[in-house]
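Fill in residues.
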């Protein structure tokens, strides 16, 4: 499992303008089974994505993020191996 921390690199009005394209990109990641959870940081300085799969596949996916393409975000990827999960989240223990 991977936790991806996005840090915004532009003003929020630019982030908001790119948000519909970013949301569509996220939906594609969910449809492909790569993303399992995502959302904004509080305060709104970026976002978080929880992902599963191969690191190379996740890195390729990040390269196509509209935020990345517009220079609006940087990414920090942390891999970890969950040893305990709540009922119903067993899929995350891959």
């Amino acid at each position: 499992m991977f936790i991806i921390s996005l840090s915004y690199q532009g003003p929020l009005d630019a982030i908001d303008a790119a948000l519909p394209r970013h949301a569509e990109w996220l939906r594609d990641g969910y449809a492909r089974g790569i993303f399992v959870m995502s959302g904004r940081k509080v305060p709104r300085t970026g976002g978080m994505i929880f992902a599963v799969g191969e690191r190379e596949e996740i890195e390729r996916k990040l390269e196509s993020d509209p935020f990345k393409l517009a220079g609006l975000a940087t990414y920090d990827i942390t891999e970890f191996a969950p040893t305990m999960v709540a009922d119903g989240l067993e899929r995350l223990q891959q």
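The two ends are 7 Å apart (CA to CA).
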